[in-house]
Design brief:
Elements (H helix, E strand, L loop, with lengths): L2 H19 L8 H13 L1
Length: 43
């Protein structure tokens, strides 16, 4: 898998999360954003 392909998958994944859960992340810290996103997906 090339770097571009991985980036594309990540961009599409974040687009879907934003579409499903409101369009933005409230937290600024990257680790907290990841934890918040995983919590939203699990719910």
């Amino acid at each position: 898998m090339t770097g571009y392909h991985r980036r594309w998958i990540a961009e599409i994944s974040m687009y879907r999360v934003k579409q499903l859960f409101g369009g933005h992340l409230l937290l600024r810290d990257y680790d907290e954003q990841v934890a918040d996103t995983m919590a939203m997906i699990c719910v």
